[in-house]
Amino acid sequence: MEKKSVCAVVVTYHPDDGVLDNLGAIRPQVQGLVVVDNGSSEEKRNRLRLAAGEVEFTLIENGNNLGIAAALNIGVKWAQSERYRWVALFDQDSLAPPALIDTMLRAYESSPRRDRIGLLVPRYIDSRRGIPISAIYAKDGSLQVAMTSGSLMPISVFSHEGCFEDSFFIGGVDYEYCLRLRSIGYSIEECTDAVLMHAPADFTECKVNGARLFSTSNYSAGRRYYRERNTVWMIKKYWRRYPAFFAGMLSHSVKDGVKILLAETGKRRKVYYMALGVRDGLLGRMGKTVEL
C-alpha cells in the first residue's frame, strides 16, 4: 500500500488533553504528521511542543486564529513541500481507529472511479451520541459534499485545483471545496469499510413527555454568522449547478433558526448574527469579520 506517502494534517485551536490521544492514534498510520495550531493559549502550545517530540510530528504555530481554511492550506502546503503523495485531514477531536488510512487506500485502489476521485471519506459516527452522521449523496451514488475531517486526498488535486477558500475563515470550507471539485469532474467518494468517530456539535435533545422532538447544535453566534454568510457565498457561485442541494441548505437554515428560538440560549444574539451573515454574504464581505 501507499502508507509511506501519506501526510496527516491536524488543525488545533485550544485543544483539550484528548488531542494527544488522537494524534497518537493517527501517527502510526502515516509517514508524516503536521499539526497547525491556530492561536491556542501558551499553555496549550507548550503541551503541543512537548508532544511534538514524543509523538513525532511537525508543529506549525500560527500565533493567532487564521481560520480553518487558512490553517488547512498551511498544512497542505507543508506536505507538498515535503513531496507527499496524499494528505489526510483531521479535526483535533477526531479519533482515528487502527488501519483507517490503509482501509481507505484499499478502497481507493479498488474503486472503478479512482481516476476521478478528488476526495475519499469514511463513514462518520457521532462520538457524543453514538449514532451515524447522515451523508449527502448525489444521484450517481457518490457524495454530493463531505466533511473535511477524516478525508483522504491525492495531493495533486491541490496542485491542480488550488487550496481551500481561506476567505471563508470557518464554516462551509469543506462543502465549498467539494462543490468546486464536483463542478470540474471530480468525484467525492465514501469508504463504507472505514469508520471515524467525530464530534460535530454539542447537541441538545428537546423532548416533551419523554418523546424526542428534535435536536439542536448550540453553535455560538459567531459560528452561526459564518455558516450563513458562507452559505450565501456558495449559493451565489454554485446555485445554477446545484439548485436542489441549496434548496435543502436554505430549508436547513430556516429550521435552525426555529430551533434556536425554541430551545437555545442567547437566541436573540444568534438570530441577529445569522441575519448579519446573510447580509455580508450578499455584499461579498468575506474573511474574518466577527470574533468566535
How would you characterize the overall build of this protein?
The protein has 292 residues and is an alpha/beta fold. 42% of the residues lie in helices and 22% in strands. It has nine helices and eleven strands. The strands form four sheets. Strands 3-2-1-4-8 form a five-stranded mixed sheet, with helices on both faces. It has a two-stranded parallel sheet with strand order 5-9. Strand 6 and strand 7 form a beta hairpin. Helix 7 runs antiparallel to helix 8 (243-263) and helix 8 packs antiparallel against helix 9 (267-283). The longest helix has 21 residues, at 243-263. The chain is globular and about 45 Å long. The N and C termini lie far apart (41 Å). The relative contact order is 0.12. The model has no long low-confidence stretch (mean pLDDT 93).
Low-confidence stretches: none
- How can the largest sheet be summarized? 5 strands, mixed
Portion in strands: 15-25%
Number of helices: 9
Overall radius of gyration: 19 Å
What is the general shape? globular
Compose a concise summary of this entry.
Helix content is 42%, strand content 22%.
How are the SSEs placed, and which strands pair?
Blueprint: E1 6-12, H1 18-26, E2 32-37, H2 42-56, E3 58-61, H3 68-81, E4 86-91, H4 100-110, E5 117-126, E6 136-137, E7 143-145, E8 151-154, H5 155-161, H6 173-183, E9 187-198, E10 204-208, E11 211-216, H7 221-238, H8 243-263, H9 267-283
Parallel strand pairs: 1-2, 1-4, 2-3, 5-9
Antiparallel strand pairs: 4-8, 6-7, 10-11
